[in-house]
Amino acid sequence: MSEIKLNLRPNLLRLFRYLSEIILNYLNQFRKRSNKEVFTTYVETILIKELHPGQIV
User: CA dist 53 to 2, 38, 39, 42, 48, Å?
Assistant: First the structure.
């Protein structure tokens, strides 16, 4: 029975690494998209201020 436990441990570590890589890739993709949206909103705000200097944004 101890042989089975010893054999399962590397597989569990491999599974954990695989799942953590998937999760980190997903989070990085979301973060990049979020940063892009924030940057786009910032640029749009600057452009609106340049085009309409008297208006409050």
Answer: 75, 22, 20, 16, 8
Q: What's the CA gap between 41 and 39, in Å, rounded?
A: 5
What is the reported pTM? 0.46
Q: pLDDT tens across 12-56, in order?
A: 888 888 888 888 888 887 777 777 776 777 677 766 666 666 655
Provide CB contacts within 8 A for 49, sequence distance 6+: 57
Maximum CA extent, the chain: 78
Round to whole Å and give the CA distance between 25 and 22: 5
